[in-house]
Every structure is written in structure tokens, then in C-alpha cells.
Amino acid sequence: MSEVRLEGVSRWYGDVVAVNGVSMTIGPGVTGLLGPNGAGKSTLIHMMGGFLQPSSGTVTLDGEPIWHNPQVYRRLGLVPERESSYDFLTGRQFIVAMAKLHGLPDPDAAARRAIGLVEMDYAAGRTIGQYSKGMKQRIKMASALVHDPAVLLLDEPFNGMDPRQRLQLMDLIRAMADEGRTILFSSHILEEVERLAGHIEVVIAGRHAASGDFREIRRLMTDRPHLFLVRSSDDRALAASLVADGTARSVRLTPQGLEVEAVDFARFTLLLPRLARDAAVRLWEVSPSDESLESVFSYLVAR
Amino acid sequence: MNATIAMITFRAMLGRRRAVLLFALPLLLAVLAALMRVLDASDLDTAAAVLHGFGFAVLLPLLALIAGTGVIGPEIDDGQIMYVLTKPIPRHTVVLTKLAVAIALVTVFAVVPILLTGLLMAGGTAQLAPAFAAGALAGGITYTAVFVALAVISRNAAVIGLLYVLVWESLLGNFAPGARSASIQQWALSVTDALTPTSYVHASVDLPVAAPLLVAVAAAGAVLAVVRLRSLSVVAAE
Predict the structure, then answer these.
(1) A105 and A55 share one domain
(2) Total domain count for chain A?
(3) Tell me: the pLDDT tens digits for A138-196?
(4) With an 8 Å Cβ cutoff, are B234 and A86 in contact?
(5) How far is CA B38 from CA B71, B115, B135, in A?
(6) Are A207 and A234 found together in one domain?
(7) What is the CATH number of the domain that holds A195?
(8) I need a labelling partner for A273 at 20 to 30 A (CA). Which of A251, A293, B140, B208 fits?
(9) Which residue of chain A comes nearest to B232, CA vs CA?
(10) What CATH number should be reported for the domain holding residue A264?
(11) Which Pfam families does this one have (chain B) (predicted)?
(12) CB of B155 within 8 Å of any CB in chain A?
């Protein structure tokens, strides 16, 4: 069981403050680091990974400083956001090389295990340069897993993955967390964090905005009026049912379809299909119209 | 030294497009030497002039620049260095391995061609070929250490290195004798000068001064590279 602890951590570049007085403890299980692009998530992960010196404050792994301490990498795995790896090596050569760099007793067996974990056996003989974005992401993941680390830091791991690969990586991360590992991943997508993380840390504009159980944060983020655009076979009938049911605070009939202001996000998304079916209306399109993360975050900050 | 880092570095160096330069420059020297030989112009005087004027002034520094910056610079720029740095390996091992690979490349693509050219043009006369090869090796090590350090410190290492070689060593060296004594090329030449009896080779710095300078600058380069790599900050992508 390992723990990454940040205490009063700030990082500035010249006059620009990227991270401002952040204190948090990342313990066993999956923690999601959520924030809009440019919030300081990568800066935080780089400091936790020992690639950036905090301008002030301390970052420790089980009490040991991470900065200037390569020995922490025996217990820490890092998946960087940048895509580039050694394109001229095959996937297998790359992972075996990483195992050797870790000084593992049986690098070939460790590489086989790590490649198996990310289900890349079928492509391990091809050079990384020929991989798709999702495959590169998975081989990077294998490189961070090869030494079976207690702590895993993932910077935007789902970027560029297709839905199936996303699900598979989520399963893998969950399984590793169940083994007692400490896993932190960053994302700017609420849905990813919600589905995977038991604990969420929200960073906005370099500040630690919220921390806690995902239900808590989810409630903060979703218990607010949501605007949806709904197109259906009979907008008027649907509007009547919505108003009658009380799930919508307001419904506007527009040439593009219905603009619905829902009171409760979860209840609305659950009830809408049922209402439509009961009213014998066919739904063409349901799209949240103010779901940009910025609006979610600005709502959160305003609280 | 770390065999895995060396393997990856060798493959990266020889697989890149710039590897063509590694082969092209020594080939040029070989063609030049063969031409001189065919034209029957290969006396000791010309041999020394070719080895100094092309071997020491062009081939050696350029090869050291390509190898020295190439072994680590692109990896830092692309962020691949993270894969090496997130391992429980002391940073000095990383730097010394990279340095060793670069020196091996300089030896194969500059020192050996200089030796062969010397043998082709001057045969065994006046120990000219081995003397130039020894000077090239000594200078090559120092050049490489400086350029590796430059590559860790700056993203513009290749440009800075090129400016040093072209402007400082070649241009200023021709006009200002002061600049000539503070030049790796001249220190390397003094090693050669000390090893061959011929008067066609003349260094402007004496060996007792040049040798410690070669060692000190090489060591300083290596130490600087280690120190800077220890604190290498990866710039966040955002």
C-alpha cells in the first residue's frame, strides 16, 4: 500500500502560476484528477512523477521525496501523455528493454506479462511506428506496468482510444486497483472520471477546487439545471408529457426541436426514453447543449 | 554503463536519416585521399594538409556534433527520455552510456577514416597516420563530451555547436591567435604534433598545456551533463 502526498505544492513558470498551493493525498484505489485543459493536471502529474521540481511545497511517496530520487521508480510507474516512444523498436523489444532498465531478474517473462495485461500480444512483433494511437497508448501502459509498481500515474490515458479500448483499459485499471495499487489518472472528461474513479480530485486554474467521493462531486456537478436539445417524431406530444411529469423545469418548442431544461440530470436521462415510449413518440436525437466542461466547472467554481 | 540504453541509442542513431551524414563525411575524406593518390599528389605535405584541413577542421568536429547531440538531444525534445529517466538508474550512468556511444560512433566514423586516409596518403612515413588518429581520438572525446552537455542544456545545441566550430575554431582561429589557443581542434593537433617528427604539423599550443585542457574540458562537459540531466524538467504539454 503506497501513498503519494502533496503538501502545499506550487509551481510557477516565471510570472505564470501553473499550480497554486495544492495539498492532497493519493492512496490505494483509483483517483481521478479532473480539470479542464490547462488547469495544471499535467504539471501536477509531472511533479508526482519526479519530472518537475515544485517551486514550493513537497511531493513524497511513502514519506520519501520524489524529486532527485530515481530509486522511487522501483515503486512508481508513469504513463506520459506524449505519444512518442521508440518508434523503431517493436512493441516487445521496447517492453523487454524497459524491463531490463528496471533490472528485473527475468525481463522476458515480465515483458510477456505486461504485454498480456494490455492485450497487445498480437501486435508485439510490429514496430511501434506502425501502431495506431490506441495501440501506442497501450504499449506505453505496458511499459509502466512491467515492473509491477505499487503506484501508477497516468496522464490522459484515454486520449485517442476507441470505445472498446477505453472499456478494456478501464477494466485493467480497476483490476489493478483491486490488487491494492495506488492509481492516479488525469482527464478532462467528466464521464471517464465518473466511471472509473472512486475518489476524485478537481483542479481548476491551478487550484485544488474539490476533493472527495465521486458521488459527492457528481452531485455537485450534476445537481444543476441541464439544458438538452431533443428532436423527436412528435415534439409537441413529448413536450406535454415532459411538463406533466415534472422532470423538466421548462420546455421550449423551437424549429430545431425541443429545448428542455431538466431539473435532475440522472432522473431526466433515465425517464426521457420511458416517457417517449409511453407517449408513442420516437426520439431522433438527445444532446446536452450546455455540457461543455467549462460550464460544468464554472458552475462548480461559482459554488 | 548500461547495455540496454546503449542498444537503444545505437539503433536510434543509425536508424535516423542523419545517419547518412555519418557515412557521407568519412566517404568524402576517403574519396579525397584516393583522388590525391591517383593524381600522385600524396606527399607528406599534402597528406598533413588534408588530414588537418579536412579531417580535423571538418570531419572530426561535425561528426562529434552529430553524434554528441544526436545521442540525447532528440530524445529530450520528443520526451522519450522519460522512459529512461523513470527507471532506478543513476543519471550519471545514463550520461556516461550516451557519451560512450557517441565516442564509439566518432571513433568508427572519424578516427578510423582519418587513420586509413593517413595510411593511404602517407603510408608509414613519419608516423603521420597514427599521430593524426591519436589526436583525433583525444579531440573527439573532448568535442563529444562538450556537445553531449550542450544537448542536455539547450534545444539549440546543434546550432550552438556549429557556431563554435565554424565561427570560433575556423574563422576566428585563422585571424586571432588567442582564439586558436582556446580551441579543441588546436589541442587535438598538439597531440598529433607531439607524436610525429614531421614539421608539416604545427600546433599553436604545447602538449603540456593542451593535454590537461582536453581532459579538463571533457570532464567538465560530462559532469555538467549529469548535473543538468538530474534536474531535467519536462515541459508540460498543456
Answers:
(1) yes
(2) 2
(3) 899 999 999 999 999 999 888 877 888 888 889 989 998 999 999 999 988 777 887 88
(4) no
(5) 37, 19, 27
(6) no
(7) 3.40.50.300
(8) A293
(9) A51
(10) 3.30.70.100
(11) ABC2_membrane_4
(12) no
